[in-house]
Each structure stands twice: as structure tokens, then as C-alpha cells.
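Recap from last week: sequence in, structure out.
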Amino acid sequence: MVVLGDVIADFSAKTTKGDINFYEWLGDSWCIFFSHPNAFTPVCTTELGRVAQLVPEFQSRNVKVIGCACDTSSDNEKWLDDVKSYSKISENTEFPFPIIADESRSLAVKLGMIDPDEKDKSGVPVTCRAVFVIDPSKKIRLSILYPATTGRNFTEILRVVDSLQLTDAKKVATPADWKPGDACMIQPTVLNEEAIKLFPKGFETQQVPSGKGYIRITPHP
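Predicted C-alpha cells:
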């Protein structure tokens, strides 16, 4: 089981693109690591197709994508033909990211991705719909678990990456429903004197009944 701030341990795995060592594969990139319950299932097919469509967006942000399930590599490779067909990806196009074959469920158990209520045809629990955002230092920066019946919104995951990368670079936080280009909030630990230097576009302090000037809004830095 991993939690926010944990450094994900290195591992080796068999994937649809051959054997990998995770640290070596990731290099200095960010990573979207996501699991899905089973190959040849409807919601998972839509998810892999959507992620494949978003790969250019992730790549432009120095993000690599990797999937994980408890199926065999052979099943995953056959299933990707269905994913490409459903998502209108040319059958001659190589699928843009690898899928880990975690048949032993060792990785799923280690990362806390097993869904006890979702089982395969043999009655064995399979992976839930987990999403981890991992930064270049291999640290878990986001962790979300979805039930098997709910497909994920990967546009939201992309938005989170934008927020994480921005707030790593600048002393800001992003408010509810923020999107790239929107105004940001200055972090509470930044004194006004420092904020004047850090944010040349200026900032506005919103007045609230408590009288505490903690809501400071600045244009996208």
C-alpha cells in the first residue's frame, strides 16, 4: 500500500512492449500509472482508448503513461486490437503506451490496487481502477481509486498534472475548477512582502468576515 509522498519502489515487469525496469523506463519523466480490472471489458476499453488519444498531451508535459492489469501479456496484446478498433486508431499503428501483465497480482497488492468486490471468472479479486501520478523523483503525488463501474475522467488527470507542475515551480495553489491560464491562489506560507517580489503581476486580497487576509488571488504566473 502506498500513500501520498511515498517513493514508489523500483520493479521489473512484463509488458505489451517487452520487459521493463520501471526506474529505467521512467527516467526523468512524470508518470501516469493506472490499473484496470480486466482485458476484454467495456469500460476498460473506453479508458485505454481515451488515454491513447491523450498521449500527445501527456508527452508535451514530459509525462509517460503505463497501464497495469492481472491479465497475461498475450491477452493484453490481443485486447489492444479491440481498443484500437473502438477508438478509431489505425490497426497498423503501434499502441502508444505499455500495459503491465501483473498475473501474480504482486504489484497490485504492493500498491494497494486490489478490489475485493471485483473478481475474475475464477472468483479471484482483480485490480480496481487506480490512478497514480508519479513525479521524476519517483514520489506519489496523486492517488485516486475508482469503483469498477465508474470510468475515469483522464482530462481531469491531465489538469492535475498541470496543477502539480505549476505549483512545483511557483508558490501558488490552484482553486476549485482551476484550469491552465486561470488565476491562482498565493500559498499561505508566503508573506505579503515576499509575494510582492514573487508576483510582479500583482495580487488581490479578498476580504472575508474573519478579517484574515489568506485569500490572495494572482493572475496565472
